[in-house]
Amino acid sequence: MSWIQVYSASNSLEAHSLKGMLESMGMDVLLKGDSLASATGELPADVVAVTLWVDTLREEKARSALHQYEAQAESVWFCPSCQEENGGSFEMCWQCSTPRDEF
Ligand SMILES: [Zn+2]
């Protein structure tokens, strides 16, 4: 199997959630750059860029899933309860936990 980089995450947390997303679609995912230092808290997790790698045969599928993720993440929504702005990837308000309305 050969690997190809499909995404560079801005932080470790994002990388791991994307890895989970792709794995749930049946893909093998490799994370690179997720250093032990960031895991042990010696460095802030967002210092290190983490890249996602998939099997070249899955590249197209992975890229389309990541594209959808990015499009969704860009569309912010506003909490009907506290008017807080939330990222598109949140299913509930990060501030008051009100579930996101259907749009
Ligand atoms: Zn809220």
From TrEMBL:
Every RanBP2-type domain range: 73-102
Presence of the UniProt keyword Zinc in the record: yes
Family matches, as InterPro entries: DUF2007, Znf_RanBP2
UniProt GO molecular function: zinc ion binding
Keyword Zinc-finger: yes
Stretches that traverse the bilayer: none
Keywords for this protein: Metal-binding, Zinc, Zinc-finger
Domain of life: Bacteria
Pfam families found in the cross-reference section: DUF2007
Annotated protein name in UniProt: RanBP2-type domain-containing protein
